[in-house]
Design a protein that fits this description.
The complex is a heterotrimer. By secondary structure, chain A is mostly helical. Chain A is built from two helices and no strands. The relative contact order of chain A is 0.17. In chain B, α2 packs antiparallel against α3. The chains are: A mainly alpha, B mainly alpha, C mainly alpha.
Amino acid sequence: MDANTVLAEINGNIATVGYGLSAIGAGIGVGLVVGKTIESVARQPELQGRLTVLMYIGIAFTEALAFIGIATYFIFTN
Amino acid sequence: MLAELIIAADEAPNPLVPAWYDIVYSLIPFILVLLLFWRVVLPRMQKTLDERAALIEGGIEKAESAQAEAKAALEEYNTLLAEARAEAATIREKARAEGGVILAELKEQAQAEAARVTATAQQQIEAERQAALVSLRAEVGTLALDLASGVIGESLADDKRATSLVDRFLADLESDSASSTKAAK
Amino acid sequence: MLETPLSAVALIPILAFATAPATDAPEFKGPSILDFFPPAIFFDGNEFFEMNRIMLLRLVIVSLIFVLFWLGTRKMQLVPGRFQGTIELGLEFVRKSIVEDLLGQKDGKRFLPLITTMFFLVLFMNLTGIVPGINIAGTSVIGLPLVLAVAAYIAFIWAGLRKHPWTFIRNSLFPPGVPWYLYPIVTPIEFISMFVLRPVTLTLRLLMNMIVGHLLLVLFFSATAFFMVELGGWWIAASAVTLAFGTAFTFFEILVSVLQAYVFALLTTVYIQLALADEH
């Protein structure tokens, strides 16, 4: 068999896969943050306001990874 | 192939590389809005908030003074009420004492009245008895005369009849005197 | 965060057309990154002042903010009316639940103008992404997020240097309480996270949210148009699905707009708070 024979071909951009991978971690992370916040609010409802702010900060940090994932395509194309 | 890629890259600019015009038209809005909030909106907002706070504080002061007034009024009212209660108590005491005196007086009066009524009744009875006695004495004479005339008028032939007449007379006399003594009593 | 399995299912028919080699069949033209670089309107070719519709939109939004807040606070009543009440509600939300909650009254007052500017500028610029006829967010081109992130960067470094002039940089790079032999690991991490990642993530989070939001909405609505107009027939059923998803994502974009404005202002405040914290 010739080394140059193409056995299978995939169209599209590999960056899509990269974004998919980066979204896994961020997705799990956001899920954990929100889940834990809900748990804490269920335990101590009077802390809800404070915990919500903390939750948004946590989501923002975690979610940034996914957006860096999108951005890497543009970073490395040039 | 490479040329195509270059054209593609040229056609689609990288969104992560800012163009100068982009920076310019971002700085201008940012600075304008920053100045707006810094110099105009937030000072106005702060002024309104201060005024509102002053108003609320003034309201609280007013409410406090009103409360103090109300408290003073309540105290005054309470003192007045206590005084009135004390007065009422004294008046009641006095009234009770007076009432006792009046009662005693009334009792005395009533007793005196009762005594007077009794005395009057006894005097009346005595007077009536005297009158009865007087009238009896007068009547005894008449009766004696009647009897004597009767005795004289009657035929004394029958000894027996004469005796019964005398007896009847005596009995009458006796019953009369008994009834008159009973009335005297 | 934006993709759901259902929406992926809704888009499957499109993929067939997008990947199929164009022959006689009508070709689906999806959204592209060129949406964010429209042709110039004024000053074409001028490197610094070339104005396209997004730049024009930004200036329009700024004048809208001016009109709203100028009028809203011009004659402030002690008992606010409906319009003034709304303006006050927004300003008080930023002041109470973002700035004073994290920075306290004294420090909060110094940074309040900056944070308020960030919140409302980002909010209004984001919301244009769902206004029909405009349909692109003012923050979806990197300039504005970058300028705001640099402003936040300068603000928190300035706050730290001003509060602890001698120890701020040292304590940020060599956090106290860490054993000295860990510094080779900790210091680079701290440096990258504090002086590189913070502004970069601030920029990217906002930018990518807006870009992705725009692309998704355009994808759904252009797919709807494609199914309905180009294909017709039974494909109209598919257009109903994409239309429903487009509508749902429009509402989702409203949520994202508000949330991103909140998060941007909140994170700036958190960075300032960390710089002001006593351990520095």
